Amino acid sequence: MVPYVNMFSIVKLKSGRIYVIDTKTNSKAPSLHKVVEPEDIVQKTGLVYPHTSHCLASGDLLVSCLGDKDGNAAGSGFLLLDSEFNVKGRWEKPGHGPLFGYDFWYQPRHKTMISSSWGAPSAFTKGFNLQHVSDGLYGRHLHVYSWPGGELKQTLDLGSTGLLPLEIRFLHDPSKDTGFVGCALTSNMVRFFQTQDGSWNHEIAISVKPLKVQNWILPEMPGLITDFLISLDDRFLYFVNWLHGDVRQYNIEDPKNPVLTGQVWVGGLIQKGSPIVAEGEDGKTWQFDVPEIQGNRLRGGPQMIQLSLDGKRLYVTNSLFSTWDRQFYPDLVEKGSHMLQIDVDTKKGDGRSLAHEMRYPGGDCTSDIWI
């Protein structure tokens, strides 16, 4: 048995490969331990487009997959690998696959796993097309499974205000039966929770209003919440608006009433110098001030985030998905992406707790792709 503490996996969405990296032999020079090939996965499960992986208490590895070999979302489901990273099969019971696949999180004390939905690979791999939303090729549902049984118990329809629910997180406290999911296209942070009868419900906890804009493909621009996280002490929730360009911090000590406590702009389509401008209700146009970091203009928008264990450093990258990068931020393809470190003050709570002392980790590296 290979202890997970000495391994991590890299899941490649488009190639379908899963790379297992050995960090025990030499932690300063990780080496490739094994590659799980897509042909083996397809043959045994029919699954393609792996995305999220979680280690289970059983020693197995659970991976969400977004479709079948033809790019149909109807073929999405969950891949189960054993402790030696061999394909065991599908985790969910036969006929209990989600409508669309993407992220998932589980809370064992409540015997529940909940997964989210992006869209059909045949649609999102070609770039974003608003018509595909109307055609039903993107998701708006949460799928509630029994844990660890794999039985689909309930499907929550988030409706027109919950389009493209991507990243999903339970609170870290294992006794809590509540969590959040970021709905990208409608830019709402939705809270889900268990009711007294044991079923699950949801409500909008935070809403990012679209901005009226000029010189863009649409008259209004959504924030596009692509990633979020919850601090280990469950005090703060952080999320990003990939198109608007801001990173936000909310106090969620009362999960029903999040309070904005920090906000900083680190890119986006409406920063000064961009041809795209936002228009206020009075008709006046404006753009966001985005600081240069070590003399470099920030490209793209904040996309993936990770918080240090002590909650004091927030790491931010700016690349979403190559075809979407090319569509919305062509500079990322031409010049490369970057990773930022944002210093966090968790004590102020006065709207200024995300510090403007940002840097490229590693100093001089300003154009390499870090992830």
TrEMBL record:
Keywords: Selenium. InterPro entries: Se-bd (IPR008826). GO terms for molecular function: selenium binding. It comes from the Eukaryota. Belongs to the selenium-binding protein family. This is Selenium-binding protein 2. It comes from Quercus suber. The gene is SBP2.
